[in-house]
Structure prediction request, 172 residues.
Amino acid sequence: DIEEWNGAVSDALLDVLEKQREMQEKLTDLEARSRWNNLRIYGIPEGSEGSNLQEFVTNLIKSELGLPLSDTGLGIQRCHRALAPRPPRDAPPRSLVLCFLEHRMKEQVLHTTWRKKEVRLEGKRIYFDHNYPSEILIRRKAYVGILKELKTKGTKIYELKSTRVRLMQLKT
Prediction:
């Protein structure tokens, strides 16, 4: 009886673990979709934004990227520092999280910064990137070495993107 019960419990546990994995994947997907219009800016020193973060970011993007903007501007819905305790003076600053009203504007800002290659503020380099959930960041870190090796061998960018997709499918 105990052996039968043990087998039934093992099967039930495997089912529950599989369902939990599926639910975690769905949750990560929903979180990624909710961040679709978000953009992160890394490297802006703490306190340099003054009292109005949104105005600071708008002026930074306009001055450094020179985007042709309509009367509505960038369409930044909200922006804030990453939700973490303020770091000590010698630690890297928290990133800025921007939420755009339109995905198209977020992509335009992001691609403009990537084409420019280097954006500086007060002599320090700042970086723009998508706002990924932590699970996706962990997956991306797993294949950074492979991508660097492919790049050093002269592999084209479109090949790297398709490699990323294949690696992501292999991981899951």
